[in-house]
Amino acid sequence: MRSIMRLNMSTLSITTEPVPDAWARYGGRALTDAIVFAEVPPKADPLGPEAKIVFAPGLLGGTSAPNGGRLSVGAKSPLTGGIKESNAGGQAAHALAKVGIAALVIEGVAADASARYVLKINADGSTEIVRDDSLTGLGNYATKDALDATMGDVKRYATITIGPAGEMGLKSAAVAISDPDGYPNRFAGRGGLGAVMGSKGLKAVVIVDEGLPYLAHADKDAFNAAVKKFANALREHAVTGQALPTYGTNVLANIINEAGGYPTRNFSDGRFEGVDHISGETMREVTVERGGNVKHGCHTGCVIQCSRYFVDKDGHYKTKGVEYENVWALGADCGIDDLDVIAELDRNCSDLGIDTIEAGVTIAVYMDSGKLAFGDGAGALALLEEVRKGTETGRMIGNGAEATGLALGVEHIPVVKHQGLPAYDPRPIQGIGVTYATSTQGADHTAGYSITANVLAVGGSVDPLKPEGQAALSQGLQIATGMLDALGLCIFVAFAVLDIPEALDAIHEMAEAHTGQKWDTDALMQLGKEVLTMERLYNESAGFTAADDRLPAFFYDVALPPHDAVFTVTDAELDSVHDFVADTATAMGISKP
Amino acid sequence: MQIELALFAHLTPYLPPAGAEDESGSSHARPMDLPDGTTVGQVITRLDLPAGPRIVFVNGRHAPDDHSLANGDRLAIFPPVAGG
After folding, report:
1. Which domain holds residue B33?
2. Is residue A222 included in any domain, yes or no?
3. In the prediction, which pLDDT does B52 show?
4. How many domains does chain B divide into?
5. Subunit contact B28:A252, Cβ cutoff 8 A
6. Does pLDDT of B22 surpass 70?
7. What is the DSSP letter of A565?
8. CB atoms B81 and A243 under 8 Å
9. CB distance B9–A250 less than 8 Å?
């Protein structure tokens, strides 16, 4: 039976209840959304006692569904002020699901703000809440080491932790999830959810899944057949079967740069002259030469294997990836072309527990103010040290690009709904601009990854430099992403699903065989629409209007080289992206919270 | 005419050897002399690139195989890649 476990930090009490029938088809993002929608007032202080943070494996979590171990972390975001689902790999989703937990909800705030608590969930479902103030101020890596020291003979467990940024309540604070080797290097990065966890006095969650098998299925044979079909599609597609495992996500650097959409020095150029030094191909060469690992899954059951470990010049682990977004944010956007410097910045962000995208965008905005030269890696590292110390400058940086840009009077602040833009300029790649503008999450490439048809020739082709077709492209992808996030599938499966029809069939076949519920393609898309509908209505009640579904003015006014492109999708087209929300809300029988 | 040819990821090994005049230092791009009017498809044949889908850019814009190249163009060819 799937259950919802609640930890009230005000009373330090834990309760468990069955998932209500109304949410029986919900997992992952759908379930975190449903709980936040129903239980967190849209006007609540995101760091106050009415706020909650929810951890949910997808509907396929705890099974052998390929790439089915993603974790949704949901809350009202202190960064955007809207509903947030931040999605991470790592081992926690499978572990929670195997223990029988469909959602872990953290409520209230600890009576003593200086207290640091650890929640331990044992394999038999029993729980312990331990106060350990010695964890105060520790980075994610030291926190993980301290937790490991308490585990005795238990070998198999996952951790969810925050670093000092989360404890300080900084708006870019992230939540770290341990990977299959135990490194706390997978992140629910976006939207400041580490601050929500920190505001409750919760420093860590440990979930023990030692000895627990995968979950049982309603129809085992049908499930295994669908798994085989899905895995074959992922292995067969050139992206998920070859490019991603070989080069990792950073294989994108060269092609986005070639398309003229690689944001450089705070979105002032679409090409970075140093890209050859930091590309996925170069990173692979460097990593192989140093003896690093260049192919593994970020969670058990991943068949794509795009993760890797970057090692220093002596061959010692430095950080994971480095992922495309992180290399870009801490590299090209800051004018930095040294992989070792980028990896050091990435390691520091991970240990502090801040979102790497927001950190890079923020440092680039800081550089644009004239206070630090573009390309100054040592200066960038010093800024992260300010964050660790909690100085005035450090808190400004840790609160993100908008806070920093406004404080320093920077003209070009690349944010939507207060969240920094990721690694694709929306002027020469207009489909991603539609997603940035209209997503319920604030500027978020993963919410509707239009790069597929705009640049990568996956799932069709839509000219990236023209406005036509972009709204429809983004809408379809946003709905599909909501569905994948609800099932707990990695969104990279979409590269295969968009091109191989059997892969989409395999998804609803896995869902049906596992749950015993009726699932088909229409039901999958309905799930995606329900996710977006809850988010959209919540954001309206939180105060968002159509004016919030726009890019910053400079993307419309300032032409970007090399294509001299500006963003030309009309407001009416942007407003059409959520044209299904009213009907879906009616069908769901819900109205604004 | 001369173009700049760039090949990436699994296609990089198909780059012609760097000539003495190539001072770009790029690990992905080379100057390439071609008869006037050569098309993208003719370059692909000449390089003997492996079969399968490709993503082709001329001067940073997608281009089909029958696109005729001009002096000074940059031709960049990728195998299917993605990430994010």
Report:
1. 1-14+27-56+71-77
2. no
3. 85
4. 1
5. no
6. no
7. B
8. yes
9. no
